[in-house]
Amino acid sequence: MYKKTALAMSAVAFSGVAHAQGSVTLYGVIDTGFIYVNTVNGKDDLFGMKTGTMSGNRWGLRGEEDLGGGLKAVFTLENGFNSATGALNQGGREFGRQAFVGLSSDRLGTIRLGRQYDPVVDTVQGLTADAYIASTAGTPGDVDNYDNSLRVSNAIKYLSPVYAGLQFEALYAFGNNAGATGQGQAWGGAVSYKNGPLAAAAGYFYTNNPSTGRATTKASNWGVTSSSDSIFDGPINNGYTSAHSIGILRAAAQYTVGAFVLGASYSNAQYNHDAFSAFQSNEVYNAGSGFATYSVNPAWRLSGGYTYMHASGDTSATYHQVGLGTDYALSKRTDVYLIGSYQHASGTQATYNSAGQRVLQTAQASIGSFGYAGTSHQELLQVGLRHRF
After folding, report:
1. Cα gap 245→94, rounded to integer Å
2. Which end of the chain is more exposed for a tag (fewer CB within 10 A), N or C?
3. Looking at 106-236, which runs of residues are DSSP E strands?
4. DSSP classification of residue 4
């Protein structure tokens, strides 16, 4: 009797172990090249090494465990780094790109807890020129998070199953500030659709400033205690670090016709003020863009795009940006690329001087999310090598 009981208990234990099988995958990208920028900080040219342009450098672990009944436990830990120096990116975080755990069901959808991309980045970014020539044709200054300057900490996200090509996402992130529940919080939602050659998505993301008494808030403060990183990549929106909140609406669509992919997108980014802000009228950025990419053959692709952006409210400025690029695959995992961009700016911008005082200045060009401040115009050229593993 004892032997039979022991055998039965062993069988149950073994079946549990076998049932709870899972997998863990190591993956990553290393993207490094040389960059030339005409006029940086309004006076000097730059030639040097630049990393993470076409794809942010990363290594990560992604895993899942089958819990039975169509339910899985999932996780992702993703580190960002500078391949030129070996330093950590995302403010020195060990897993600054992503760090979450969750439960996934084919029938009910997926819940994730931790540091993640917001729903607009998940759904809209891949439908823009960013997927082909990075931010060379993206929104000037990345004021609408076009190039994923923001990631969201302390977040809970829901992803629905795909219904006839349609999927939606929703996210809420805690500010984790005692006595001020809403301070530093973030939330957003998006919906996407894909059917054959057509893909489209739209969404909204909101993040609240983590600080009080914000007239001298530094750009980095948005990434220290808040649920989000800094979105202040250059001179275009530098004068709005004291904003009460930022709200971003984005939409994009693309259509594939043979060897061509054609796309268009629109965004509205509002930097909202309150009594603690150093500016007294909301600053609004409206941007529209279009792009085309052509596959010469399976290994070689040519791409180009144009973006128009107008700022209004607190200041008034207009930006025109053109980006071109080509990418050649040496193998399934390794490619080389050449990209270039030109931007022209006119009007006025808000910024801070060396004494910490907010002032107006003639609009400076700043291509995409590169963060370099130019004069009324700026030119950029980069060649790079990218390897995936």
Report:
1. 27
2. N
3. 109-116, 152-159, 166-173, 186-195, 198-208
4. H
Tokens of residue 365, six digits:
């060009």
Contact present, 301 and 281 (Cβ < 8 Å): no
pLDDT for 219 equals 60
Residues in the chain: 389
The pLDDT of residue 222 is 61
76's CB contacts (< 8 A; 6+ apart) are: 60, 61, 62, 63, 98, 99, 100
- Taking the C-alpha atoms of residue 109 and residue 246, their distance in angstroms, rounded to an integer, is 29
Report d(CA 358, CA 318) in Å as an integer: 20
Domains observed in the chain: 25-388 (2.40.160.10)
DSSP state of 222: G
Tens-digit pLDDT profile for residues 284-336: 999 999 999 999 999 999 999 999 999 999 999 999 999 999 999 999 999 99
CB hemisphere CA count around 244 (13 angstroms): 12
Within 10 Å of residue 224's Cβ, how many Cβ atoms? 13
What is the structure's pLDDT at 352?
86
DSSP state string for 341-365? EEEEEEEEEEEE-TTS-EEEEE---
Note every long-range contact of 112-116, with CB atoms under 8 Å and residues 24 or more positions apart, other chains counting. 112/74, 112/155, 112/156, 112/157, 112/159, 113/155, 113/156, 114/153, 114/155, 115/151, 115/152, 115/153, 115/154, 115/155, 116/151, 116/152, 116/155, 116/157, 116/171
What DSSP element (H or E) covers 282? none
* Residue 46 bridge partners (DSSP): 37
What is the pLDDT, as a whole number, of residue 25?
98
Residues 205, 216, 209: CA angle, nearest 5 degrees: 20
Shortest CA distance to 286 belongs to which of 252, 258, 309? 309
What pLDDT is recorded for position 223?
53
Place of tokens 């040389």: 34
- Beta bridge partner(s), residue 200: 193, 253
pLDDT for 20 equals 56
Question: Rounded distance, CA 131 to CA 224, Å?
Answer: 29
Specify the DSSP class assigned to residue 273.
Answer: -
